[in-house]
Amino acid sequence: MLAEVILSALLLLVTYWFIVTRRLRSAVSAYSVQSWLLGFISILLYLDTGLIELLLFGLLIVAVKGILIPQLLRRRVAFALVAGRETAYYVRFPTALLIGAGLSLLGLLAGSRVPYHLQLLPESVLGISLAVFLLGLFTTIARRDAIMQVTGLLAAENGLLLLSLVVAPRLSLLIEIAIVMDVLIAVLVMGFLVARMRDELAGTDTSELSRLRG
Amino acid sequence: MIDQVLLAAVLAAPLLGAIASLAGRSDRVRYVLVLPICLVTLSLALTLIARVLANGPVSGFGNWLYLDDLDAVVLLVVVVVSTMSGAYSIAYFRSDAQGHVLRPGELRKYFGLFHLFTLTMVLATVSGNLILLWTGVTATTFAAAPLVDFYGSHEPLEAAWKFLVLAVAGELIALLGFLLLYESGIGSLGSSYNFSIPIMEQAGPHLEASLGAIGFLMVLVGFGAKAGLAPMHTWLPDAHSQAPAPVCAMLSGAELNCAMLAIVRVLSLVTPANRAGAVGLHEALLAFGLLSMVVGVVFLISQRNFKRLLAYSSVEQMGVIAAGFGIGAPVAALGALLQMITHSLAKSLMFFNSGNLLLRFRTTTIAEVRQVIRIAPASAILIIAGALAIAGAPPFGLFVSEFTIIRGALINHAWAVAGGMAAILLVAFLALMEPFNRMVFGEGKEMSSHPRSELGFLVLAPGYILLAAVLVLGLWIPGPLHSLLVGASQVVQR
Question: What is the ipTM metric for this complex?
Answer without folding.
Answer: 0.93
